[in-house]
Design brief:
The complex is a heterodimer of chains A (216) and B (639).
Chain A lengths: L1 H17 L6 H7 L5 H9 L3 E4 L2 E4 L1 H24 L4 H11 L5 H10 L16 H10 L3 E3 L8 E7 L4 H9 L7 E6 L4 E5 L2 E5 L1 H4 L2 E6 L1
Antiparallel strand pairs in A: 1-2, 3-8, 4-5, 4-8, 5-6, 6-7
Helix pairs in contact in A: 1-2, 1-4, 4-5
Chain B lengths: L1 E6 L5 H9 L16 E7 L2 E7 L11 H11 L3 E9 L3 H14 L4 E5 L1 H6 L2 E3 L1 H8 L3 E3 L8 H8 L13 H13 L7 H9 L11 H15 L6 H20 E3 L7 H8 L6 H48 L3 H8 L4 H30 L1 H15 L7 H7 L3 H7 L6 H14 L3 H14 L1 H25 L8 E4 L7 H35 L2 H16 L6 H8 L3 H13 L5 H13 L4 H11 L1 H28 L5
Parallel strand pairs in B: 1-3, 1-4, 4-5, 5-7
Antiparallel strand pairs in B: 2-3, 6-8
The chains are: A alpha+beta (216), B alpha/beta (639).
Chain lengths: 216, 639
């Protein structure tokens, strides 16, 4: 059980940082009194935790591991509630032990089976995995890239893909955000769209990052 | 005590600045005209203030060099009040800045500018309600007509910080609190600093210890891990949410009173098919006005009538009467005389051309056509590693390359700035030069003009494409706001033209005089002939030009147009045949930029880059000129 306890510590810190729960006591119930100072030291040594000004916090490696753990935990909870219909009292304990054994493949299978849920039964967010991102692409058929609008057509922005932070910030500052209505004015030689009372010209590389739901 | 003007690009900050200080700054209908911080003094009700005009920004979290300048001014402290200038019809984006000023806990008033334009669009803004919600003064203005300026000045008297607050989601708020505990006291609220930091602007890091920086970064990283979207996006999104909440309370729409002609013009100027004849028509009008009227009629009048019949004659007799020594007489009225050469070139040839160009450019600028031109040329400019935005400096370069070099600061990346500055120095002839060149070309044949134009364009594209490959870095996104087409106001055009002409006279005429004086000295000590002799293989054999052409290239360094004017003289005196004209103007167009342009290049990019550019341009111009010469000979073409 040595490894599990270490996992629980990482998870506890993750959730503590999430600030959603007042403290991590619930989780430490799973961990039990075994979570000793020694184990924390060991985690620091293995580069899962770092210490800044005496406070222990997750390292890059630790955060990645913890994210996977929280994801498995919350997905397991969903699985137990939605599919197996287990009661609340079995939920936490089983999820606690389940999370450590799920491989990435199994996790993706469960996630896909459940339809890529975004929240656990308690309403906490489930960190998204690779499969969720892939699935998102498939939904795009209803949602089209802005440049596929013909001139004169309008659409409501659904999302702006976030590959380039700089570009995203630029667009955001001009008021190009989800739920805003844009109207395509012309598509050649450059794209010109109207957002509110502003006409904005963009070239292809930029505009293809904006996805809209067509308004007929 | 400072009063600072901030706002989105192209909302009229500079016009308001002008009203407050009585100082003229360049105003145009093109986003991003103000690239330098301008300061002026203003006497308001409660004493004297420094008024600071800033470059337009869309976000106070900076995304480019000029945006960080604006942010730094806000952080510098000693601010008495801020005027947030808003384009009333784009109030949403102005309020996005307003909520950030609110967070910074800085005092401000809102000037709701271009208030007249919202009515046409059927928009009604309840400015009293907005003032009530924000707890700061909101003044509707029409700055170009000076409406509302008096109320604005009155409103500046009592600075007020908005009491409004709004929260982000709990996780972000917790992180903000944690970061606030680590921050030292600053001129703006710690909370807004923390949010800036979360959004990725860690410029404050310099003021903190490495341990503190690490701690803040770790808070930011662990917060960021919870979201798929970057934190800056979440913060901006929440701000816009707040803005939209406010907008719901203050804006109403009516069916707009339709104006037909201006929007129609706006549309055809960017139309994929009709836009092309519009570009050609604009170029044709520009040519007619600057090339034919300016360089032909006005120059003819100034040169033949004003200077030759009056000023030169008068000067010669005055000098002969006043100065007994021949050498000093020559210094003023000789072949390389101050009056007969420097001033008559400067005022008779160059000024009419530059003047007419500046008028034409101001009209283009104020009408809002230039951003539309950017849409048309964006695809072509991509070949050169630039995007459509570079159209402003490149077109302005047709007026004055020095001025254009200064405006390259509106471009977002260093790579774009270097390429544009290089192309300006190499291949964009300034209006004075252009006027003289077109005058010479029209004296030969139309086919020679086309030939010259083709060579220029090929060089521009080829060098641009090559520079794109060689110079590291990236091209910025082409995202450009298109302002509405407006009818330019005569007053503004005159003011702007005069300001530019004044700049030109101060900057340029002294260089003419220095150039002439150096030539005079070179001629006296016979160095001119020695240089002509040394360079003769290059000039006479490779370029196939008469030895006298050497000095025009030499003076070309003082002013490119000055050099071109020298060629014009050679042509008039029958020293150049048509082929030689083509070779010489191809060479002089590409030839090194004038001194003023070179100094501006040093200022913008540093001495090293400027020298590298010059040392590339010089042999390149000679090379291309020579190639044209030999190609013409080989193909037995003569014009």
């Amino acid at each position: 059980m040595e490894l599990n306890i270490r996992d629980e510590i990482l998870e506890a810190i993750w959730m503590k940082q999430e600030q959603l729960r007042a403290d991590a006591l619930d989780l430490l119930k799973c961990v039990g009194p075994e979570a000793t100072q020694a184990q924390i030291e060991e985690l620091v040594q293995d580069d899962y935790l770092t210490r800044i000004n005496g406070k222990v916090t997750l390292s890059q490696k630790g955060r990645a591991r913890a994210t996977t753990l929280v994801r498995s935990h919350r997905l397991s909870e969903r699985l137990f509630t939605d599919v197996m219909e287990l009661g609340e009292k079995y939920l936490e304990r089983n999820a606690c032990s389940f999370e450590h054994f799920l491989s990435e493949e199994v996790l993706e299978a469960i996630c896909t089976l459940l339809g890529h849920p975004t929240e656990c039964p308690h309403g906490y967010p489930i960190p998204p995995g690779e499969c969720c991102k892939r699935a998102e692409k498939n939904i795009k058929s209803i949602i089209v890239p802005l440049p596929s609008l013909k001139s004169g057509e309008s659409g409501k922005i659904v999302y702006v893909v976030t590959k380039h932070h700089h570009r995203l910030d630029h667009l955001t500052s001009l008021g190009i955000l989800p739920a805003v209505t844009v109207k395509m004015h012309q598509t050649f030689p450059s794209y010109v769209v109207r957002v509110g009372q502003t006409d904005i010209a963009m070239d292809n590389e930029v505009i293809q990052d904006i996805y809209v739901r067509k308004i007929s | 005590m400072k009063i600072i003007l901030v706002g989105n690009p192209n909302v009229g900050k500079s016009v308001i600045f002008g009203h407050l200080t009585g100082k003229y700054v360049t105003v145009s209908n093109y986003p991003g005209t103000t690239v330098e911080i301008t300061e002026g003094i203003s006497k308001l009700a409660k004493g004297q203030y420094r008024i600071v005009d800033t470059a337009g920004v869309n976000n106070l979290i900076p995304m480019s060099e000029d945006e960080s300048v604006t942010r730094d001014i806000l952080l510098a402290g000693d601010i008495n009040n801020i005027i947030l200038v808003a384009d009333a019809k784009m109030i949403r984006r102005a309020l996005f800045l307003a909520v950030q000023l609110v967070e910074m806990r800085l005092p401000f008033v809102i000037a709701l500018n271009m208030y007249d334009e919202i009515k046409e669009r059927g928009m009604i803004i309840n400015s009293e309600k907005l003032a009530e919600i924000l707890g700061v003064k909101v003044i509707p203005t029409v700055a170009t007509e000076k409406k509302g300026i008096a109320s604005l000045i009155k409103a500046l008297a009592d600075p007020a910080v908005s009491p409004m607050t709004f929260a982000y989601e709990p996780k972000i708020e917790f992180a903000v609190q944690d970061i606030c505990r680590l921050l030292p006291d600053t001129t703006i609220s710690k909370r807004s600093f923390a949010l800036m930091w979360l959004a990725g602007d860690d410029s404050l890091a310099k003021k903190l210890s490495p341990a503190q920086v690490q701690e803040i970064s770790s808070i930011r990283n662990s917060l960021a891990a919870f979201y798929q979207k970057p934190l800056s996006y979440l913060i901006n999104e929440r701000r816009f949410e707040k803005v939209d909440e406010i907008l719901k309370e203050i804006i109403k729409f009516e069916p707009p009173k339709r104006k037909i002609i201006l929007p129609f013009l706006g549309k055809i100027t960017t139309h994929p098919v009709w836009g092309v004849p519009v570009v050609l028509a604009v170029l044709f009008l520009l040519y007619e006005f600057v090339g034919v009227f300016g360089a032909g009629t006005l120059v003819g009048f100034m040169e033949n009538t004003v200077f030759e019949q009056y000023i030169n004659k008068w000067a010669v007799s005055a000098v002969n009467f006043l100065i007994p020594w021949t050498i000093f007489r020559d210094f003023f009225v000789g072949e390389y005389g101050l009056i007969t050469m420097a001033l008559s070139y400067g005022f008779a040839i160059v000024l009419p051309i530059v003047g007419t160009f500046f008028i034409a450019f101001s009209i283009l600028e104020d009408s809002g056509y230039l951003p539309r031109l950017a849409i048309m040329v964006n695809r072509i400019f991509k070949v050169m590693g630039l995007n459509g935005k570079a159209v402003l400096p490149l077109v302005l370069g047709l007026g004055c390359d020095t001025m254009a070099t200064m405006t390259t600061r509106i471009l977002a990346t260093p790579k774009e700035r270097i390429i544009t500055i290089f192309l300006l120095a190499l291949a964009i002839p300034c209006s004075a030069q252009l006027g003289v060149i077109l005058g010479m070309l029209s004296a030969i044949s139309f086919s020679a003009t086309i030939c010259w134009l083709a060579i220029e364009i090929v060089v521009l594209l080829a060098v641009g494409a090559l520079a794109d490959r060689i110079i590291p870095g990236r091209r910025s996104d082409f995202i450009l706001e298109i302002p509405p087409i407006r009818i330019p106001q005569i007053g503004n055009i005159l003011i702007k033209t005069f300001a530019r002409i004044k700049w030109y006279l101060i900057e340029v005429i002294p260089l003419f005089i220095i150039g002439t004086a150096i030539l005079f000295v070179l001629d006296r000590v016979h160095l001119l002939r020695i240089i002509e002799y040394i360079t003769s293989p290059l000039v006479q054999d490779w370029l196939g030009l008469p030895a006298k052409a050497t000095q025009t290239f030499l003076v070309g360094f003082f002013r490119r147009d000055y050099g071109a004017a020298g060629l014009y003289d050679l042509l008039k005196n029958g020293l150049l045949n048509p082929n030689q004209v083509l070779v010489s103007i191809v060479t002089i167009t590409l030839f090194v930029p004038c001194i003023a342009n070179f100094l501006m290049m040093v200022r913008e990019r540093g001495l090293k880059s400027a020298l590298i550019m010059i040392s590339l341009i010089f042999p390149f111009a000679i090379l291309v000129g020579g190639l044209v010469n030999h190609a013409l000979q080989l193909l037995k073409i003569s014009f």
